[in-house]
Amino acid sequence: MYGVTKVYPGDVVALDDVYLTVEKGDFVFIVGQSGAGKSTLLSLIYRGTVPTRGQVFVDGRNIVRLRRREVPLLRRKIGAIYQDFKLLPDRTVYDNVAFALEVIEAPPKDISRKVSQALEMVGLSGKATCLPDQLSGGEQQRVAIARAVVNDPLILVADEPTGNLDPETSNGIMALLSDVNCRGTTVIMATHNQAIVDRMRRRVVEIEAGRIVRDERQGTYCHEA
Question: How many domains does one find in the chain?
Answer without folding.
Answer: 1
